[in-house]
Amino acid sequence: MRRTLFDETHEEFRANLRRFLERKVVPEYLGWLAAGAVPRSFFTEIAALGVQGMAIEPEYGGVGIRDYRYNQIVQEEAARAGVTLGTLRTQLDVIAPYFLEYSNPEQRARWLPGIASGELLTAIAMTEPGTGSDLAGVRTTAVREGDHYVINGAKTFITGGGLADLVIVLARTSTDPVNRRAGLSLIVVEAGTPGFDKGRRLDKLGLHVQDTVELTFTDVRVPVANLLGERDAGFSYLGHNLAQERLAIAVGAVAQARAAVDLTIDYVRERTVFGTRVAEFQNTKFELAAVSAEVEAAQAMIDHAVIELVAGELDSADAARTKLFCTEMQGRAIDRCLQLFGGYGYITELPIARLYADARVSRIYGGTSEVMKSIIAKSLGL
Ligand SMILES: Cc1cc2nc3c(=O)[nH]c(=O)nc-3n(C[C@H](O)[C@H](O)[C@H](O)COP(=O)(O)OP(=O)(O)OC[C@H]3O[C@@H](n4cnc5c(N)ncnc54)[C@H](O)[C@@H]3O)c2cc1C
Question: Is 108 exposed, middle or buried (0-12, 13-18, 19+ CB in 10 A)?
Answer without folding.
Answer: middle
